[in-house]
Amino acid sequence: MTQKISLIKKTFAQIQSFLVDLLFPKFCLNCRRQGLYLCDDCAAMIDILNSYLCLCREPLRLDKPGKCPNCQRKKLNGLFFAVGYENSLVQALIKQLKYPPYVKELGETLSDLIVSHFLLVEKQIPADIILIPVPLREKKLRNRGFNQAEEIARRLAQKWQISLINNCLVKTKNTEPQMELSGIERENNLDGAFACHNQESIKNKDVFLVDDVYTTGATMEECARALKTAGARQVWGIAVARSRI
């Protein structure tokens, strides 16, 4: 009976996907070719990072993932990201995921960029590592209907066959981004903004913390602080794009 229900759900999902593609065909956001939101030719134009960088505001290249001597005090153990945010095509993809009209399926496209980066740097994915998305402010979650970081993380969990926990890290303080603040002031503004529920699920575990864009790093740093306070062993950041490289 369970298998029959599962088959019905799968068939319904396939029919639903077919109808959506029929009524709302996909077009490449760059060249407008029909079929995909990012066609193979345009995807080849994106320069995927093939090295590691530290967490400093002016990052240094590293021989292995981690931190340079100047960013050792950071809570994050290091950062993996696929591309620089200055790439206009990548900006368009991320904005189309986050702003109306929302294209939720772009979580798949953006996760592919991350997977490509891991392949280029030949980084193996530990089978016991846990994926945790950076949580979204409650108001934005209600308006958008989904968390873009969770959409990307969910696809990564499927591709890498690793665990995803999306109810562990929560936002306890609704802080609005204030670009007029200095980097230190923005970090202080996020102090105590995140907390961990279900702490046993991450105790003594390594975590991949997933977000769409890494800018100042203040959000990921505060998330890493909360996760490590709750007992996580290591917290590595994963982002589609990073600004200022």
Question: Can you walk me through this structure?
Answer:
- The chain has 245 residues and is an alpha/beta fold.
- The chain folds into 2 domains: 1-43, no CATH class; 46-242, 3-Layer(aba) Sandwich (Rossmann fold), CATH 3.40.50.
- Helix content is 37%, strand content 17%.
- The protein is built from 8 helices and 9 strands.
- The strands form 3 sheets. Strands 3-9-8-4-5 form a 5-stranded parallel beta sheet. The protein has a two-stranded antiparallel sheet with strand order 1-2.
- A hairpin with a 7-residue loop joins β1 and β2 (61-62).
- The radius of gyration is 19 Å and the shape is globular.
Domain count? 2
C-alpha Rg (nearest Å)? 19 Å
| CATH domain class of the largest domain | Alpha Beta
Structural class by secondary-structure content: alpha/beta
User: How many helical stretches?
Assistant: 8
Please give the alpha-carbon distance between the first and last residues. 54 Å
Q: Provide the low-confidence segments as ranges.
A: 16-20, 178-186
Give the mean pLDDT. Answer: 87
- Helicity, in percent? 25-40%
Question: What spatial form do the alpha-carbon principal axes imply?
Answer: globular
